[in-house]
UniProtKB/TrEMBL annotation:
Pfam families per record: ADP_PFK_GK
GO molecular function, one term: metal ion binding
Keywords: Cytoplasm, Glycolysis, Kinase, Magnesium, Metal-binding, Transferase
Protein name as catalogued: Phosphofructokinase
Domain of life per record: Archaea
An annotated GO BP: glycolytic process
Organism of derivation: Halapricum salinum
């Protein structure tokens, strides 16, 4: 890492800042005022320099930096304007040992410098800056080399529920148009006719955002008789995420409603995914390859299109897709795991739940989605009580009453919620929130997420867009924003790899994602957000604390001509969530 020192005349302390932060102590004149009260100020990471003699640091007491050194480790966890007081601690070996334990490396770089990796903030003494810094752009660990991140997620257990299906992929072309009728003008309530499907696809193409509507069993059968899909592939958020985690050597535990032989055959390594089985009051796990199956298969029709593609008189404005999804009666959030939730919590570290958009208003037995959502929320509450971090992937649904039920019952029970920009618009609409005001899109989204954080009662809200990813979180309640940023970096590599290759078969396939450049509009958006937050030139990665919230943003790696866009949002969500939790547990 290149050093960019800056001299502080008053104390003779040289400062440097970088994403992979260093703390190096050097000789300064004794400063008695350093023994006074220090107040921590949220800021960028700081690097100080200290003199080393005979390959060992001098006694910190001789350098006048005792208080600063003593507080370096507590500062890792102490952000916010509050005093830190304590007894002077002069045991350098123990101090260095704490740093080595929490971070990674310390080693003499030459006879006069000793380098220790650490995260820190800068301090003020009675309002006077004694250490100051400026930001120098640097890439994250994952952007530099994802191997350490892959090590962190190896065998890391994550619970994934609820939806799995088989996707019938069709690229929008003449063959699709030949089975449809010309589109209407009004957005349909459901996909129950050739005209309704044409309307939904063309309006999604014109808008440039992915979308989804339910289709009827009758129209699903009608379509299957007339249109041969280009490809059948694993679908459903939970299934796609479980498959990816298994390919990255994590430890996915998948629960889903309908697991047919046809469905199971779509998984790459079903033997590497665990399935929960309840026997009375006992919970066990079997490989997905040995899990009990059903005869019914859930199928979703995925109509993909690229910018410039045409259907009837409409031209696509972006690379995305429309989904016509079947809604089997079995999809009702009832997992049967409620009696063994303590055992489940003992076997997983985090949980990512999805598929709520598959709920029906009324089921064959007369029950309603309100009843199922409330029982599902109770299950999440019990799982959270076991210390499991939970994230919900919001999912597109045009049922306003269902979205209301999620806001009222599910969001208060979880830690984080993830969504795309279209889903964020629907959420704002439901809350009658006008949005984050004028300015660049990313700045408006930041203000929106900050405002919604308190209203929704969650600790973190995440949004993934084509060009960048953004998370706003309670700085005191959620995970370290540095870990969230690392998760975003991994998500960008995974998404680029999938867009380039179509599938990821093993961890080494991520190398293709590293070869994809960061989105220039994404980097420009981060620069705009950085200017708003007071961070100069953040590059592709931004972490900051502002107005009482923490922010983690990252530019995406965008493939110009993607092989496929199906499942990219799910891959982004699980890559980010899995890594941030694994790093939080492993002191990355």
């Amino acid at each position: 890492m290149q050093v960019h020192p800056r001299s502080e005349d008053s104390l003779g302390v040289e400062i440097q800042v970088a994403r992979q932060c260093l703390v190096v102590l050097t000789r300064v004149e004794p400063a008695d005022d350093l023994r006074q009260r220090l107040v921590v100020q949220p800021c960028l990471e700081v690097v100080a320099l200290a003199h080393v003699r005979d390959d060992r640091p001098q006694a910190l007491g001789d350098l006048g930096l005792v208080d600063l050194a003593q507080r370096a480790v507590p500062l890792l966890l102490a952000l916010g304007d509050r005093p830190l007081l304590g007894d002077v601690h002069e045991d350098i070996p123990e101090f260095l040992g704490l740093l080595v334990h929490r971070n990674h490396t310390w080693s003499p770089v030459d006879k006069n410098l000793f380098v220790v990796s650490i995260q820190c903030t800068f301090c003020r003494v009675r309002g006077t800056t004694i250490l100051s810094a400026r930001h120098f752009p640097a890439v994250t660990h994952v952007d530099d080399d994802p191997r350490a991140a892959l090590d962190a997620i190896t065998e890391y257990p994550v619970f994934l529920a609820h939806n799995a299906n088989v996707d019938a992929l069709c690229h929008v072309d003449e063959s699709v148009e030949s089975v449809l009728n010309p589109p209407g003008e009004a957005w349909p309530e459901s996909i129950d006719s050739p005209e309704a499907l044409a309307t939904a696809i063309t309006q999604t193409m014109a808008r440039g955002d992915g979308d989804l509507l339910a289709t009827t069993a009758e129209f699903d059968a009608w379509l299957a008789e007339r249109l041969a899909p280009d490809e059948q592939r694993l679908g459903g958020q939970a299934a796609i995420m479980a498959d990816l985690v298994s390919l990255l050597d994590g430890d996915p535990i998948l629960w889903t409603y309908l697991l047919s032989d046809t469905q199971r055959a779509q998984f790459t390594h079903p033997e590497s995914i665990r399935f929960p089985v309840v026997d009375g009051d006992s919970l066990s796990f079997v490989p997905l390859s040995e899990a009990p199956t059903t005869d019914q298969t859930k199928r979703n029709w995925i109509f993909e299109f690229s910018a410039g593609d045409r259907l009837f008189e409409t031209t696509a404005t972006a690379d995305t897709r429309f989904i016509a999804a079947t809604r089997p009666d079995r999809f009702n959030l009832e997992t049967g795991l409620d009696p063994v939730v303590e055992q489940l919590g003992a076997n997983v570290e985090c949980a990512l739940v999805s598929g709520y958009q598959s709920l029906k208003r009324v089921y064959d037995d007369g029950s309603t989605f309100d009843e199922h959502v409330e029982r599902g929320a109770e299950f999440l509450r019990d799982l959270a009580a076991e210390g499991v971090t939970i994230q919900l992937e919001y999912g597109v649904t045009h049922k306003r009453d269902l979205r209301r039920a999620l806001i009222e019952h599910v969001l208060p029970e979880i830690d984080a919620v993830g969504m795309d920009s279209r889903e964020l618009e629907l959420l704002c609409e439901d809350l009658q929130y006008a949005g984050g005001g004028p300015g660049p899109d990313i700045v408006s989204q930041y203000r929106t997420l900050k405002d919604l954080l308190a209203r929704l009662g969650v600790d973190c809200i995440k949004v993934h867009t084509t060009d960048y990813f953004l998370a706003v979180m309670d700085a005191d309640a959620y995970l370290d924003p540095e870990y969230v940023a690392e998760g975003w970096a991994m998500a960008a590599v995974v998404a680029a790899s999938k867009a380039t290759e179509g599938v990821i078969d093993e961890p080494s396939d991520l190398e293709s994602g590293l070869d994809v450049d960061f989105s220039p509009p994404g980097v420009a958006s981060l620069s705009q957000l950085g200017s708003y937050l007071g961070v100069d030139d953040p590059g592709p990665d931004l972490v900051a604390t502002h107005d009482g919230v923490a922010v983690a943003a990252h530019a995406n790696r965008v493939v110009d001509d993607p092989v496929s866009t199906v499942g990219l949002g799910d891959s982004i969500a699980v890559s980010n969530f899995l890594l941030e939790n694994a790093l939080s547990d492993s002191d990355f």
